[in-house]
């Protein structure tokens, strides 16, 4: 069967058409600058990349173009061939603990969480509505970034602040990247043929989060009420002392909104190094002896190592550590730096196995106390699997 995995942003729409259950990518692509003057789209199919500039007034027009291209390129003959559409939805609050079949009523519930993810949820919902309009007879499934983390216990998700912040205003830890962490957990449990694994999943990309998982259930995760919390990231600070905000507001006259923007967009690798948010640029600067790039890398790897050590304690000893996402999959330098800093856990990197990018491999020595793997994440596949499961259960 053919399933579309969709990730709709405020001005973009990414898709992957998958053949399931074979897990093969048939075609993929990106619609960009939707609603803006210079919109365009790219479609990758059979090793070719097609790029077209065209006006895309809104998501509905983008979906219309997508469907027309799939037919024109003979990727599908009729719309019925698309048996399901799976959508990435960022925030499902406490309510959505797993993926769900979408309809208007469910979407209204999802919209309740727009306030908690204002940059993502309204755009995600817009994407869903566009597909519902163009493919009204096709099952639409929502896969939430937050859902995997809903197994956290109060002791992990309640912040030590006045309790009414939680009761009245829903201030709690939610966690993000759940679809990626769930994919990693599913994959490593399958690989090691053990359903009761205690996993530390390190999703280290431009955004980053670490998750402690026991027997398929999240125990704790490093992101929080928003994706600003946890480890240092490309442009995000991760955890800092909250008092810094008032102090800086008094010093600079910046508003809370501006300062929060600084923490989201001007901090992390970019803020500390002054070079770039991209770790490839940081690594190049480190090799040239740039002191602030070296400092940025040191802070970054230390924060990750600290979370791994903390979660090893929380899990009462992890069975496996996995690196994934942009840096986790592609940066031997960062993997080595992090692993040096968790040596006290008895974790040993096999240097001869670390020099590669983007593959599923074990990188620890055979006598490492905890085995360490690199696994390329695949959120699109996870979304397609969830969608397929709804279709199969339905039939
Ligand atoms: P993601 O958000 O998962 O797409 O990760 C994107 C980040 O991965 C980029 O900003 C880079 O910092 C990092 N990255 C990708 N490729 C490499 C590489 N070859 N070496 C080091 N870092 C990389």
Q: What this model shows, in words?
A:
With 395 residues, this protein is α/β, with parallel strands linked by helices. It has two domains: 2-144, ATPase, nucleotide binding domain (Nucleotidyltransferase, domain 5); 194-379, 2-Layer Sandwich (Nucleotidyltransferase, domain 5). It is 38% helix and 20% strand. It contains 14 helices and 14 strands. The protein has helices at 59-72, 104-111, 121-134, 154-157, 163-169, 178-191, 243-252, 256-265, 268-273, 279-287, 291-314, 325-330, 332-340, 379-394; strands at residues 2-8, 13-19, 24-32, 40-45, 48-53, 82-89, 100-101, 139-144, 198-204, 208-214, 217-221, 320-324, 361-362, 372-374. The strands form two sheets. An eight-stranded mixed sheet has the order 5-4-3-2-1-6-8-7. Strand 1 and strand 2 form a beta hairpin. The chain is globular and about 60 Å long. The chain starts with a strand and ends with a helix. The chain binds adenosine monophosphate (AMP). Adenosine monophosphate is lined by residues 205-207, 234, 278-280, 283, 325-327, 330-331, 357. Adenosine monophosphate (AMP) is lined by residues 205-207, 234, 278-280, 283, 325-327, 330-331, 357.
